C-alpha cells in the first residue's frame, strides 16, 4: 500500500495491476470481492477503477484499482468542507481518467452527488459506471439506502448505476438499478437486474448489469433550450412555451433523436437572452446558461464549436458548415468630375508619367549630343524639348523638323507608343463617361479592417469564434463590432453606415427594402461548424452524435432547409440576398457632370498660361530696367 500527499492533505492510494492477489479481509467473506471483480472484468472495460470505501476494502481484478478516502472520512478526521473536497481532492482523482467507480460509504448519496458535481469541473469526460456497495458493520452488511441515491438530482444524469443490497436470504445479494426512462416518477423506480449467490459465486440470471438505457427512454421528457431563429428554430403563433408551434431544421434533427429513442422534447424558450453567456462561476443566461445550470438537457439554435463553451458543455459532432459574413454599405459611386482620369488605373498613370519623364531626359541628351557632334552652338531650351515630347504624345505636329537620325528614331518610337495609349484612353473614356463607376466594394475581413467599418449584431455570440484570434485584421474587425437592439439595426441599415452580420445560408434578414440596397460580402469573416450542446459528460452525447451522422448520410437536412425557407421566409428577401451586389447599374444619361473634369483641365491650363504670361512680362520689365 502506497501513501501519497495531494494538496497538503492525506490520501491513501493503492494500485493493483493485472492479477495481483490481495486479501479481502475487510469483508465478512471474500465472495463479495469476487462479485465486484466479476462485474469489473465483464462490464467495466476501462483503464482503472476508483474505489471510495469506509471499510478499506480491496479487490483482485485485472483492472487497476485506485483507493481514495470518501468524503465522510475526511469530514470526520479533517473537518473538510464539501467545496474543498471537490476542488482540491476529487478533481485530481477524476482527471486520472477512470470511468468506473465503487462507492461503499456511510452516506453514498452524498458521495454520489459530490462526484457528479465535480465531473462538470474537470476535463475528463466519459460514460461513467457506478457500483454502490453496502457497508460492513459488526460482521454484517448494512442495508443500502437505494432510494436516497435515486432521489438525488445526479441520478437524472447517470443511467449506469448498480446498487448492491443484501437479501433477506442469507448469502444472496440483489443487484438493482433505477429505471431512468419514462416520466419523472418512473425514472426513480428501482428495478432488480440480477441476483448474486456468494456460495456458488454465480449470477442467477447472468443479465447485462449495465444495459443501454438511452436506446429506449420510455417516453422520457428532455428539456430543449431554444429560441426563435430561422431557419434553425421557428416559433409561430404566441411566443410562449405552451401556445407556440415549433419547427425548423435543427428542431427536426432533434425530433429524429426523439423518434429513435422514444422520448419527447419539452422546449425551454430563451428569446430574451438568445444564445446567452456562461460565466466563470458556472452560471449563465440564455441557451448556454440553461445548459450549464442544468435547466435544460440539450440546447441548439446555430451553436458553433466555441472554445470557451466547450470547457463547460458537451458538443456533438458537427452537422453543417456555415459561414459568417456581412451585409455592408454598397460601393459609393465615383464623382463624375473624375471621368478624365478614370480610363487608366493609378499604376498605368504612373507608368505614363514615368515614360514622359524618361522621354524628356532622352530628348535633352540628344539635343546636347547633336550640338557636340556637329559643333553647333544651338541653345537648348528645356521647356521647348518638353513641349516637343508632349506634342508627340498628344499626336500633334512637330515644331521643328529635326535632321538628326537619332532624334527621328526616338520621335517614331514615341509616336507609336502615343497612338496605342491614345487609342486605349479614348476607348476607356467612352466607357467611363457612359457606364457608372464605383469604388472598390467591401468583400472581406481585410476590407472591413482597412475601411474601419463598424458592424453590428444583436448578440456577441457572433464573435465568440474569433475572440482569441491573433490575426491583426480580425482584431480590428473585433474592435469595430457593436451590440445593438434590432430597432437600432433597422435604423443603421436605412442610413447605410454600418455592416450587419448574417450567416451564409437561407435565413431571416432585414427588411427587403434595406437588403436590396446593401452589398453582400464575397468572402466570409470566418466559418464555423454547427453543433448541438448538452451538459458536460451527458449520457446522450454519444447517441445524439450518431443520429446526426445517420441523418447527414441520408441527405435529408438539405431538403429540410428548403422546406423551412419556402414555408416561413420571405422569397423576395432571399432573392435579394443571393445577388452579388445590390447597386443599381442601369444606363446613365450624358450630362454636363460627365465633362466637368475636361473643363477643369482646360481651366487649369488657362490659369497656368496666364500665370506664366504675367511672369514673363514681369521678368522682361525687370531686365529692361
From TrEMBL:
- The record places domain Ionotropic glutamate receptor L-glutamate and glycine-binding at 225-330
Signal peptide span per the entry? 1-26
GO molecular function term, any single one: ligand-gated monoatomic ion channel activity
Classification via InterPro entries: Glu/Gly-bd, Insect_Ionotropic_Sensory_Rcpt, Iontro_rcpt_C
List keywords of the entry alphabetically.
Cell membrane, Glycoprotein, Ion channel, Ion transport, Ligand-gated ion channel, Membrane, Receptor, Signal, Transmembrane, Transmembrane helix, Transport
- The organism's place on the tree of life at top rank: Eukaryota
According to Swiss-Prot or TrEMBL, what is its membrane topology?
Answer: Multi-pass membrane protein
Q: Where is the Ionotropic glutamate receptor C-terminal domain?
A: 346-606
Q: Which family does it belong to?
A: Belongs to the glutamate-gated ion channel (TC 1.A.10.1) family.
PANTHER family tied to this protein = IONOTROPIC RECEPTOR 20A-RELATED, IONOTROPIC RECEPTOR 41A-RELATED
Q: What is this protein called?
A: Glutamate receptor ionotropic, delta-1 isoform X2
- Organism annotation: Cephus cinctus
Which gene is the coding source of this polypeptide chain?
Answer: LOC107268287
Amino acid at each position: 500500500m502506497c501513501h501519497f500527499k495531494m494538496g497538503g492533505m492525506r490520501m491513501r492510494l493503492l494500485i493493483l495491476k493485472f492479477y495481483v492477489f490481495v486479501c479481502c479481509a475487510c469483508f465478512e467473506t471474500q465472495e463479495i470481492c469476487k462479485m465486484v471483480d466479476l462485474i469489473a472484468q465483464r462490464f467495466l472495460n476501462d483503464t482503472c477503477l476508483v474505489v471510495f470505501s469506509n471499510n478499506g476494502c480491496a479487490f483482485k481484478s485485472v483492472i487497476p484499482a485506485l483507493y481514495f478516502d470518501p468524503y465522510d472520512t475526511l469530514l470526520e478526521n479533517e473537518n473538510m468542507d464539501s467545496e474543498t473536497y471537490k476542488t482540491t481532492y476529487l478533481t485530481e482523482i477524476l482527471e486520472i481518467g477512470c470511468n468506473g467507480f465503487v462507492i461503499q460509504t456511510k452516506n453514498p448519496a452524498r458521495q454520489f452527488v459530490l462526484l457528479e458535481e465535480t465531473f462538470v469541473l474537470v476535463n475528463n469526460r466519459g460514460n461513467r459506471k457506478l457500483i454502490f456497495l453496502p457497508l460492513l458493520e459488526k460482521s454484517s452488511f448494512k442495508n443500502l439506502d437505494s432510494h436516497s441515491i435515486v432521489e438525488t438530482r445526479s441520478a437524472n444524469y447517470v443511467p449506469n448505476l448498480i446498487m448492491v443490497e443484501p437479501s433477506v436470504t442469507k448469502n444472496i445479494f440483489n443487484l438493482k438499478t433505477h429505471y431512468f426512462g419514462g416520466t419523472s416518477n418512473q425514472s426513480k423506480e428501482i428495478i432488480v437486474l440480477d441476483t448474486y449467490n456468494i456460495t456458488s459465486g454465480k449470477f442467477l440470471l447472468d443479465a447485462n448489469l449495465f444495459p443501454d438505457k438511452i436506446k429506449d427512454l420510455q417516453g422520457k421528457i428532455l428539456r430543449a433550450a431554444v429560441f426563435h431563429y430561422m431557419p434553425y428554430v421557428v416559433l409561430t403563433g404566441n411566443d410562449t412555451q405552451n401556445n407556440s408551434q415549433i419547427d425548423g431544421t435543427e428542431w427536426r434533427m432533434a425530433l429524429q433523436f426523439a423518434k429513435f429513442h422514444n422520448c419527447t422534447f419539452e422546449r425551454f424558450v430563451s428569446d430574451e437572452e438568445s444564445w446567452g453567456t456562461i460565466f466563470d462561476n458556472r452560471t449563465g443566461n440564455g441557451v448556454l446558461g440553461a445548459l450549464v445550470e442544468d435547466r435544460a438537457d440539450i440546447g441548439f439554435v446555430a451553436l458553433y464549436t466555441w472554445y470557451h463553451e466547450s470547457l463547460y458543455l458537451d458538443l456533438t459532432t458537427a452537422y453543417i458548415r456555415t459561414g459568417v459574413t456581412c451585409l455592408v454599405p454598397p460601393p459609393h459611386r465615383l464623382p463624375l468630375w473624375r471621368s478624365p482620369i478614370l480610363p487608366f488605373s493609378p499604376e498605368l498613370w504612373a507608368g505614363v508619367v514615368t515614360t514622359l519623364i524618361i522621354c524628356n531626359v532622352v530628348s535633352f541628351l540628344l539635343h546636347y549630343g547633336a550640338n557636340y557632334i556637329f559643333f553647333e552652338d544651338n541653345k537648348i531650351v528645356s521647356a521647348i524639348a518638353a513641349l516637343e515630347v508632349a506634342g508627340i504624345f498628344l499626336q500633334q505636329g512637330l515644331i521643328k523638323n529635326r535632321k538628326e537620325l537619332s532624334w527621328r528614331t526616338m520621335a517614331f518610337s514615341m509616336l507609336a507608343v502615343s497612338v496605342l495609349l491614345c487609342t486605349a484612353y479614348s476607348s476607356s473614356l467612352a466607357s467611363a463617361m457612359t457606364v457608372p463607376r464605383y469604388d472598390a466594394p467591401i468583400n472581406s475581413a481585410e476590407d472591413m479592417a482597412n475601411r474601419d467599418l463598424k458592424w453590428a449584431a444583436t448578440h456577441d455570440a457572433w464573435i465568440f469564434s474569433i475572440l482569441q484570434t491573433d490575426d491583426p485584421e480580425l482584431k480590428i474587425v473585433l474592435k469595430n463590432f457593436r451590440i445593438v437592439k434590432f430597432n437600432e439595426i433597422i435604423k443603421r441599415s436605412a442610413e447605410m453606415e454600418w455592416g450587419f452580420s448574417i450567416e451564409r445560408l437561407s435565413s431571416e434578414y432585414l427588411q427587403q427594402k434595406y437588403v436590396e440596397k446593401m452589398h453582400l460580402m464575397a468572402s466570409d469573416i470566418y466559418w464555423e461548424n454547427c453543433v448541438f450542446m448538452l451538459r458536460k459528460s451527458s449520457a446522450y452525447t454519444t447517441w445524439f452524435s450518431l443520429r446526426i451522422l445517420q441523418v447527414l448520410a441520408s441527405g435529408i437536412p438539405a431538403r429540410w432547409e428548403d422546406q423551412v425557407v419556402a414555408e416561413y421566409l420571405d422569397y423576395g428577401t432571399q432573392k435579394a440576398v443571393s445577388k452579388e451586389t445590390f447597386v443599381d447599374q442601369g444606363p446613365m444619361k450624358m450630362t454636363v457632370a460627365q465633362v466637368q473634369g475636361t473643363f477643369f483641365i482646360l481651366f487649369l491650363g488657362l490659369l497656368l498660361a496666364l500665370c506664366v504670361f504675367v511672369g514673363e512680362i514681369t521678368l522682361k520689365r525687370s531686365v529692361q530696367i
